Predict the 3D structure of the following.
Amino acid sequence: MYELIVIGGGPAGLAAAREAWDQGLRKVLILERDQELGGILNQCIHNGFGLHHFHEELTGPEYAARFIQQIQDTDVEVQLDTMVLQLLPGAPHQVHCVSAQHGYQILETKAVVLAMGCRERARGAIALPGERPAGIFTAGAAQRYLNMEGYMVGRRVVILGSGDIGLIMARRMTLEGARVLACVELMPYSSGLTRNIVQCLEDYHIPLYLSHTVTDIRGHNRLEQVVVSQVDEHRRPIPGTELVFDCDTLLLSVGLIPENELTRQADIPMDGRTHGAVVFENMETQVPGIFACGNVLHVHDLVDYVTAESQRAGAAAARYVQGEQAAHEALPLTHGSGVSYTVPQRIRRGSGKVQVLFRVGRVFGTSRIVVKDDTGTPIAQFPRSHMAPGEMEQITLPGVLLDRAAGGLTLSIEEVEET
Ligand SMILES: Cc1cc2nc3c(=O)[nH]c(=O)nc-3n(C[C@H](O)[C@H](O)[C@H](O)COP(=O)(O)OP(=O)(O)OC[C@H]3O[C@@H](n4cnc5c(N)ncnc54)[C@H](O)[C@@H]3O)c2cc1C
């Protein structure tokens, strides 16, 4: 029987496994369906990783390599090419998986860390109108073709969605000799990091059309034209605003979905906003001994935050296996005005200081983040000069304040009038 099985060998799984090892667990196994460890980082050959964690700028594969080495320095077991098919919570938990090398296995473990990452929303999820020619890719699929398989996916490109993957691919396609004609975003703001807007669009003179969307796709075999229209405040296309782009490629960067099929099958309570499990402050789901971290829990913009969160999950899994009892009483933390979601959603009293990650629902200027308890009394406030949905926010709530709070907590944003 294992002490801990980690499902997924991306940056989340690697950090959780190493931390659990450092905290004293000696029977730890990572299960990864791909042929190598590292997760999505292996296809992210641009730099910009590790600024917070290592205080240097690394490429995705370099960042992953450091954590892979950290795993190789231990006796943590790794099974590659191994797909986890089912998780059955219990005492012990059972993990069903299959691989060419070991066949069908049913593995038993005291604790599990879910670290399966996320996948991209594709054309079907956003009901794109028009014909169905070749030349329409998710941005991540195009990134994999280009950076790992060595295929150039197109020459004249339009990008729908201004999430980070789309922005990164605008620059990448340009560097490979393609002409990127436009990046088109439905919302009046970008969902990507500001640094990516500047470094991937503005530096290459690629126009960003905010409040616009694709309203027609033309082409029989290969994509020939994309029609883009402006949208009103209800996100409906405005007739007469059509722009026609002659292009052979459309890249979709329209959101990521945490890979939670295993989590749902295991009846682990989910949060409809994050599309990940509901977790306590130590990343434990509401099923004792099952933890979640990284993009499977909520979509992160920076891998450094994934690493920090996953180390918390690994350490907590180790404490669980070592028999440390978690406190029973938990305060619910809910999202108030201006906040899309929070992680964690539950905070156990007596846990000490707690880091809360969240996203805002729209762009805010000078404002404050306010945490109130059930009586409406603010227990903590944090000033901010700018917040946007594309950039994850984090605050740390001191344990002494949490222990004093009456009932549940609500996190909201209040705008501050500038004088
Ligand atoms: C295009 C792109 C650009 C990015 N740019 C940056 C950047 O510049 N800077 C930055 O800091 N961050 C960036 N990020 C974010 C960062 O890469 C992610 O936040 C991070 O990789 C998430 O780690 P993860 O381990 O949660 O998920 P992943 O890296 O997706 O790893 C999940 C792993 O789980 C495995 N898995 C899933 N299901 C199963 C199963 N059933 N059985 C076995 N294995 C399974 C998958 O194969 C995968 O290896 C970028 C992300 C993308 C996609």
In short: Residues 5 and 230 are 49 Å apart (CA to CA).
